[in-house]
Amino acid sequence: MIKFDSDKLTAILNAAQSPTFKKRLEDHAKAKKALADVTVHLAELETKLFSSIPPALKGLLEPEPAKDRKQRAVVANGDLKKPDLQELKFILDGLPDKTLNIRGEGYDTPNIKTLTAANPHLFAYVSGAWPKVKYLK
């Protein structure tokens, strides 16, 4: 069972009955009503404004909807894919141009770099901020 401090409860009830508190509640209610009235008035003005604009100009004034962006893949180093030589060959063989964006697809760059260095006759490694590997066969 919850214990209440009767002195604190009495102080809260007395504060709620005070004229200052009641005045602040009334001021709050008046401010909310004024805000609602202004919002309605603004909506009416926008309606009048946009009804007087020619359709060709209206299309230029309205912003284009934001394009959905692909979420950035957040991968910890332990979660990166580390294929062996045969898996890498199979993965690259299935891609249209036989090129893999290593970071973009969530692969471990040092692992792929080691495989390409050990097999230069099979793979071409393109370094950069977004390194790639290309299957040469």
Structure at a glance:
With 137 residues, the protein is mainly alpha-helical. 52% of the residues lie in helices and 8% in strands.
Write the topology of this structure.
Blueprint: H1 6-17, H2 19-51, H3 55-61, H4 85-93, E1 99-101, H5 109-118, E2 123-126, E3 132-135
Antiparallel strand pairs: 1-3, 2-3
Provide structural commentary:
The protein is mostly helical and 137 residues long. It folds into two domains: 6-61; 77-135, no CATH class. Helices cover 52% and strands 8% of the residues. The chain contains five helices and three strands; from the N terminus they run ααααβαββ. The chain has helices at 6-17, 19-51, 55-61, 85-93, 109-118; strands at residues 99-101, 123-126, 132-135. The chain has a three-stranded antiparallel beta sheet. The radius of gyration is 33 Å and the shape is elongated.
Number of domains: 2
Q: Which percent band covers the strand fraction?
A: 5-15%
Structural class: mainly alpha
**Run of helices and strands:** HHHHEHEE
Please give the radius of gyration in angstroms.
Answer: 33 Å
User: Helix count?
Assistant: 5
Quick one: biggest sheet?
A: 3 strands, antiparallel
Give unreliable regions as ranges. none
Overall 3D shape: elongated
| Gap from first CA to last CA | 77 Å
Helix content: 40-55%
